[in-house]
Amino acid sequence: MSDPITDQRLLYIHDQLSDEDIQREVDLYGPLTDSVRQLIAATLQTEVGEPDVRRAKALVEEAAAILQERAIPGPYGVRWGASGWKRGWGNAADGVRNAVAPPLTIQTDPDGRTWTDFHLGPQYEGPAGLTHGGVSALILDQVLGDCAVAAGSPGMTGTLTLRYRKPTPLGDLHAEARFDRMDGVKAIVKGHIADAAGICVEAEGIFILPRWAREAAAASTAG
Ligand SMILES: CCCCCCCC/C=C\CCCCCCCC(=O)SCCNC(=O)CCNC(=O)[C@H](O)C(C)(C)COP(=O)(O)OP(=O)(O)OC[C@H]1O[C@@H](n2cnc3c(N)ncnc32)[C@H](O)[C@@H]1OP(=O)(O)O
């Protein structure tokens, strides 16, 4: 029987890929992902006639069949190359190969502040003309989670608390996070999403390295 903890561990993979090979994959798959992202927006915005909709559908199905000819059977997981280059390429917020991701390019300043300027297209709509609250949560989860990583305390999200202070428009937005403190094994990180006029959503996250990873880290330090 499959065990979720074992399944999860098996998807953290050190595959020793060289930086040159990883860069080649970025250059190959990145533009494909961008094209699919364009397709998602076009699918919801198009007003062409019925024959064109049907023709587009057939072309999309043909493209999907080509890509499915050889494919991994499940999630991409998190992989590291020989130099330590980390690829969370299936990640729903910033995955290089995930067209559902806005995408986010998350930066970290020397003082540990983690931030991203990003653009949300029409596919992220919740209330009319506004960003879906769950999408804001997705983005804050990732930006706060990366801030915990930058602070040296990576972890799964234990608790994410949000306060939606004012409606978040679609379009150009900014998100940022700062490490607040450790409380035992819990890393506490605070952040927000803002538009040009100010803060829209505030967040506090508690990130915890799972027990199995804490035990593996303790064993490798001891050994
Ligand atoms: C080889 C490398 C391995 C790396 C490992 C990778 C980690 C990720 C790294 C980098 C990612 C960066 C990007 C992230 C961005 C995206 C994040 C997401 O979307 S995450 C998906 C959503 N979250 C879940 O699905 C969590 C599901 N929950 C769990 O897995 C566990 O419940 C977990 C890890 C949260 C805690 O499990 P326990 O077994 O480690 O916890 P116990 O040992 O019982 O408690 C430790 C302390 O934490 C508190 N605690 C436990 N659960 C809590 C919770 N949910 N909220 C707040 N505190 C909690 C407890 O009260 C205890 O506190 P006291 O030490 O007594 O003060």
TrEMBL record:
Tell me a Gene Ontology molecular-function term this record carries.
hydrolase activity
Keyword Lipid metabolism included in the entry's annotation: yes
**Predominant location:** membrane
Location(s), subcellular? Cell projection, Ruffle membrane; Cytoplasm; Membrane
- Which reaction is the catalytic activity of this chain? dodecanoyl-CoA + H2O = dodecanoate + CoA + H(+); hexadecanoyl-CoA + H2O = hexadecanoate + CoA + H(+); (9Z)-octadecenoyl-CoA + H2O = (9Z)-octadecenoate + CoA + H(+); tetradecanoyl-CoA + H2O = tetradecanoate + CoA + H(+)
Question: What domain of life?
Answer: Bacteria
Thioesterase domain mapped to chain residues: 129-192
Q: Which CDD domains match?
A: PaaI_thioesterase (cd03443)
Gene3D superfamilies xrefs: Hotdog Thioesterase (3.10.129.10)
**UniProt enzyme class:** hydrolase
EC number(s) from the headed UniProt entry? 3.1.2.2
Q: Which UniProt keywords apply?
A: Apoptosis, Cell membrane, Cell projection, Cytoplasm, Fatty acid metabolism, Hydrolase, Lipid metabolism, Membrane, Transit peptide
- Give a single Pfam family match: 4HBT
InterPro entries this protein is in? HotDog_dom_sf, THEM4/THEM5_acyl-CoA_thioest, Thioestr_dom
Provide the membrane topology annotation.
Answer: Peripheral membrane protein
Q: Describe the family membership recorded for this protein in Swiss-Prot or TrEMBL.
A: Belongs to the THEM4/THEM5 thioesterase family.
Q: Cross-referenced PANTHER family, in alphabetical order?
A: ACYL-COENZYME A THIOESTERASE THEM4
The name this protein carries in UniProt is Acyl-coenzyme A thioesterase THEM4
Give the species.
Rhodococcus gannanensis
